[in-house]
Amino acid sequence: MQDTVMDVINLIGNEDHKMLEILMEIQDRSEYNYLTPEDIKDVSVALDISETKVFGLANFYAMLSTKKRGRHVIEVCNSTPCYILNSDSIVEILEGILGVKVGEVTEDQLFSLEYTSCLGACDASPAIKIDHKTYGHLDRGKIFNLLASIRREENI
Ligand code: FES
């Protein structure tokens, strides 16, 4: 079993009902924000649940991914309040800056761009989430600065 999975199981426990929490924690610790086939297999063994069931759960929840993503995941809210306040223009700006479409990963693997439902920041619509932090009242300048600051932190 991989060390990361072992650490997470030691931290959270191996009861069936903790599977979602376990998968989220493993994904959070993954450099590219996704669950590998090895992760699925290890969780299956640790919880004594079939790989099919673990894989099924990993694919059911939108916040989990079994596909490699970027080191930073950008999620654009496309629920109605944000949509009305022009979340489409935020998507256009992000696609322009990043050079990818929603659902894709940048060539340098630094960012993936995705849609999400309400982030609970409707009063600051249009809103996005980058990794675990939500940002609102966005415009081109604010988005540009956010991405530039992440690139600086990554020394890119
Ligand atoms: S609808 Fe976008 S944050 Fe609530």
Structure write-up:
The chain has 156 residues and is an alpha+beta fold. The protein has two domains: 3-60, no CATH class; 72-154, Glutaredoxin. The protein is built from seven helices and four strands. Strands 2-1-3-4 form a four-stranded mixed β-sheet, covered by helices on one side. Strand 3 and strand 4 (133-135) form a beta hairpin. Helix 2 packs antiparallel against helix 3 (37-47). The protein is elongated. The two termini are 34 Å apart. It binds FE2/S2 (inorganic) cluster. FE2/S2 (inorganic) cluster binds at residues 77, 79, 81-82, 118-119, 121-122, 125, 127.
Helical stretch count?
7
Q: Could you give a short account of the major beta sheet?
A: 4 strands, mixed
Percent helix range: 40-55%
Stretches where pLDDT falls below 50 for ≥5 residues? none
User: Any idea of the CATH topology of the largest domain?
Assistant: Glutaredoxin
- In CATH, the homologous superfamily of the largest domain goes by the name Glutaredoxin
Strand content: 5-15%
Overall shape: elongated
The top level CATH class name of the largest domain: Alpha Beta
Summarize the structure.
This protein is 47% helix and 12% strand.
Label this structure with key terms.
Glutaredoxin; alpha+beta; 4-stranded mixed β-sheet; 2 domains; binds FE2/S2 (inorganic) cluster; 156 residues; 47% helix
Give me the secondary-structure topology:
Layout: H1 3-12, H2 19-29, H3 37-47, H4 51-60, E1 72-77, H5 80-84, H6 87-98, E2 111-116, E3 128-130, E4 133-135, H7 140-153
Helix pairs in contact: 1-2, 2-3, 3-4
This protein binds FE2/S2 (inorganic) cluster.
